[in-house]
Amino acid sequence: MAQMRDETGLDKNAANFVALTPLSHLKRASYIFPDRLAVAYGTQHRKTYAEYHARVSALASALSRAGVQPGDVVATLLPNIPAHCEAHFAVPATGAVLNAINTRLDIETIRYIFEHGEAKMALVDTEFLPSVEAAIAAMDGKGPQIIEVADPSHGHPATGRYPEYEAFLAGGDAAFKWIMPQDEWESLALNYTSGTTGRPKGVVYHHRGAYLMTMGTVVSWQLTLRPVYLTIVPLFHCNGWNHTWMMPLLGGTIVCCRNVTAKAVYDAIADEGVTHFGGAPIVLNTLVNCEDDDRRGFDHTVQVFTAGAPPPAATLAAIEPLGFNVTQVYGLTETYGHVTECLWRSRWDERPSEERYAIKARTGVLMPMMDEAVVLDPDTMAPVPHDGQTQGEIMIRGHTVMKGYLKNPEATAEAFKGGFFHSGDLAIQHPDTYLQIMDRSKDIIISGGENISSVEVEGVLASHPAVSLCAVVAKPDDKWGEVPCAFVELKPRATASEEELIAFARTKLAGFKTPKKVVFQELPKTSTGKIQKFELRTIAKTL
């Protein structure tokens, strides 16, 4: 470490070195924005920052009194409701680690996560109690203590079988002194991967990474004071991309959205003045293709981060005239969420519309809290040419890369091999350094020795006026090994035949890239809107 020759007396101390943590944002907001609306959930829950801080403190106190100690894990199975926002601050304010669990998981996976993460307590929405109870029963009753979070305004009154959240919180002390991290490398959150290829892995976040994610997002999203943010990204997905931790930094308002529908989104924009939200491309499709009765007018532009899959150019072309400015971002659970953005350049303004929207769908360039996001040859770790053609793997390093996988040093070492986090995503890099994802390595289709990007084929099919959603996977073929097979959801009242879509694709794609089979069905999706291609691959094998 470089130092001056004499640094006597220049050591770190309590005055000049404080561990970075997103908890500091809410502490600061409580006295800078005490009367500002912090959290809104319909008409029944509207709390200022002073009230939000007091409730978080009371919850932290109640958790401590119930036996939660620093280093313990507290799980949640909650939708995007106020209690989940409060838990994001209150759990780490006890020194514990927050484990926000996907509410759509099966009983066995919930059991595994409880057991693997060693959750001591779980905050559970009434709607999800049956799954949680079954999971704990499979643990011979050795699972976490349940605190029930009722939501009677949405048809989920308390069962009475467990301590209820509001009563539990009322038993806490609003003057509780938060336990702040002494080392910013201390664990803040535990998030489990989707586990589509085996047991889910526990991704561990530290306070430093979450703090720097909030700061970097402010810069990238060009946020100013008092934005109004709608919680569409589930808080169990990369902790809502860390946006809930970020909002107090700006005195912003969090508008909770339990059920993501077009009507709920349009109502929130019109009634609450929502200015920002994040979501998968499926959310954009929902807003474009909804019934006219679900739409509401608004007179401002809503800024949207979209991720999970590159948004088709057709979707971007349809949604932006409705009042939404969409920015493509990219990241993974292992990177706390988004780490690259398609930063727009003014020189692209005059390009033809189809070309502009194709650029907007690029994966982009690294965000401010990152050190590198590059495309490398996974075997040699050498950079691929920036020619917009040569494929490699996206490799990442920076402040918001996970600590590692809980209790899995082998997987951690493999993920960090060569000094980068290996994303598993195949991409190209353009001459202007912008990345463009081509596929997950497991989703690439190899037909007759030729690599076919499912993303490219999906983009073409999505531009057909009848197509709402589509996914392309490999279908086994005796001659070619694999051929593209498309699964398609049509827009309401729209019609199209298999022959029509194949012919349409053939006008825009090379023959070997054209789907050889089109199946019309509802696409299986995760709770975050990602299409579950592993299920479609299973179906394709039977066709």
Q: How is this structure best described in words?
A:
- It comes from Lentibacter algarum.
- One of its GO terms (molecular function) is metal ion binding.
- Its cofactor is Mg(2+).
- Residues 29-406 form the AMP-dependent synthetase/ligase domain.
- Its EC number is 6.2.1.44.
- With 543 residues, the chain is of the alpha/beta class.
- It has 3 domains: 23-213, Rossmann fold (3-Layer(aba) Sandwich); 260-440, 3-Layer(aba) Sandwich (Rossmann fold), CATH 3.40.50.12780; 445-540, ANL, C-terminal domain (GMP Synthetase, Chain A, domain 3, 2-Layer Sandwich).
- The protein has 17 helices and 25 strands.
- The strands form 6 sheets. It has a 9-stranded mixed sheet with strand order 2-1-10-9-11-12-13-14-15.
- Strand 5, helix 5 and strand 6 (145-149) form a beta-alpha-beta unit.
- The chain is globular and about 70 Å long.
- The mean pLDDT is 93.
Write the layout of secondary structure elements.
Layout: H1 23-32, E1 37-41, E2 45-48, H2 49-65, E3 73-77, H3 82-93, E4 97-100, H4 107-117, E5 119-125, H5 129-137, E6 145-149, H6 165-170, E7 187-192, E8 202-206, H7 207-220, E9 228-231, H8 238-241, H9 243-246, E10 253-256, H10 262-272, E11 276-279, H11 281-289, E12 302-306, H12 313-319, E13 324-332, E14 337-341, H13 353-360, E15 365-366, E16 370-376, E17 392-398, E18 404-405, H14 409-415, E19 421-429, E20 435-440, E21 445-447, E22 450-452, H15 454-462, E23 467-477, E24 481-490, H16 498-506, E25 517-520, H17 533-540
Parallel strand pairs: 1-10, 3-4, 3-5, 5-6, 9-10, 9-11, 11-12, 12-13, 24-25
Antiparallel strand pairs: 1-2, 7-8, 8-18, 13-14, 14-15, 16-17, 17-19, 19-20, 21-22, 23-24
Helix pairs in contact: 1-2, 2-3, 4-5, 11-12, 12-13
